[in-house]
């Protein structure tokens, strides 16, 4: 038995995994953001609740492990930022520890138990507040040792004009320090930013999508520009990786007509032609980070035995 954790800035969620088909969520606890001993104690408490001794633990975290130093970048939980977290937790808990990025865990969950089942290469795309992704090939996560593979949301690649007819698009500043990243336009905040640029209107992504679905002219224009901007970098990602399915998670993945528009635009721009949907809604809608971490932990446990 292993225990998986989905570590977020506000809550820690746990789960017990005995096999790929036997993963049971546990409760959720507040995340101690600024106190590492309290963070460790929160994990200990969840482990103790199970009444069993796990053989290892696996964590999904909104951060990135440096593959060379094994140190974690996790700005929203200061007490673990910059730590060699796996080694620190192993010393504290006396158990083997595996850590993976939350988007990577999402991709792993979709490849193993979701929309990516039966596909050799699965690219999991996140269209949430921002943009992220993870890559799984032949059942293995490319970032098993940490790293940035799958991060299609960053890099100065957004087109300077988009839509039909084309309209000029600024190179918006990104939180990563660059300008013109997919992350600046591809998530919910990016959609809102585009609407403000195009129409000088401050609306939430929910309002924009609602108006688009009712045929409102300005919202329709915004969605046209949005799809044009996002489809090209996603098509390039698919060409480079050879993915044959792209499950999408995050809040915008719940808008199936939007995914259908994106899928149509992406399939028109890739080299390999598909007569079926390629960009599809994710299927592991409940705690994919927890499921992905569990699958990674189970694979690690099988390899070690």
Automatic annotation (TrEMBL):
EC code: 2.7.1.59
Per the record's keyword annotation, is Metal-binding included, yes or no?
yes
Q: Which CDD domains match?
A: ASKHA_NBD_ROK_NAGK (cd24057)
Reactions performed catalytically: N-acetyl-D-glucosamine + ATP = N-acetyl-D-glucosamine 6-phosphate + ADP + H(+)
**Which keywords does this chain's UniProt record carry?**
ATP-binding, Carbohydrate metabolism, Kinase, Metal-binding, Nucleotide-binding, Transferase, Zinc
Q: Which domain of life does this protein belong to?
A: Bacteria
Q: Which GO terms describe its molecular function?
A: ATP binding; metal ion binding; N-acetylglucosamine kinase activity
On whether Ligase is a keyword of this UniProt record, the answer is no
What's the protein name?
N-acetylglucosamine kinase
Q: Which organism is it from?
A: Rhizobium pisi
């Amino acid at each position: 038995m292993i225990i998986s954790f989905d570590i977020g800035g506000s809550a820690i969620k746990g789960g017990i995994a005995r096999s790929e088909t036997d993963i049971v969520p546990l409760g959720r606890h507040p995340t101690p953001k600024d106190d590492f001993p309290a963070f460790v104690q929160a994990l200990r408490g969840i482990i103790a609740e199970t009444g069993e001794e796990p053989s290892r633990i696996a964590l999904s975290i909104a951060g990135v492990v440096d593959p060379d130093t094994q140190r974690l970048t996790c700005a929203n939980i200061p007490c673990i930022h910059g730590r060699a977290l796996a080694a620190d937790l192993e010393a504290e808990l006396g158990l083997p520890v595996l850590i993976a990025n939350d988007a990577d865990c999402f991709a792993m969950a979709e490849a193993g138990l979701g929309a990516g089942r039966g596909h050799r290469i699965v690219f999991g795309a996140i269209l949430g507040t921002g943009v992220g992704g993870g890559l799984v090939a032949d059942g293995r996560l490319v970032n098993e040792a940490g790293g940035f593979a799958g991060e299609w949301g960053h890099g100065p690649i957004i087109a300077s004009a988009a839509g039909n007819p084309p309209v000029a698009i600024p190179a918006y500043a990104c939180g990563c320090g660059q300008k013109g990243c997919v992350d600046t336009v591809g998530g919910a905040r990016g959609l809102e930013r585009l609407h403000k640029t195009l129409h000088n209107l401050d609306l939430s992504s929910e309002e924009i999508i609602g108006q688009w679905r009712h045929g409102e002219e300005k919202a329709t224009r915004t969605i046209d520009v949005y799809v044009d901007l996002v489809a090209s970098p996603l098509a390039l990602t698919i060409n480079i990786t050879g993915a044959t399915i792209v499950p999408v998670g995050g809040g915008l993945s719940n808008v199936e007509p939007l995914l259908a528009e994106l899928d149509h635009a992406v399939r028109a721009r890739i080299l390999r032609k598909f007569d079926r949907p390629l960009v599809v809604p994710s299927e592991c809608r409940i705690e994919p980070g927890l499921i992905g971490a569990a699958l990674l932990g189970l694979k690690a446990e099988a390899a070690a035995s």
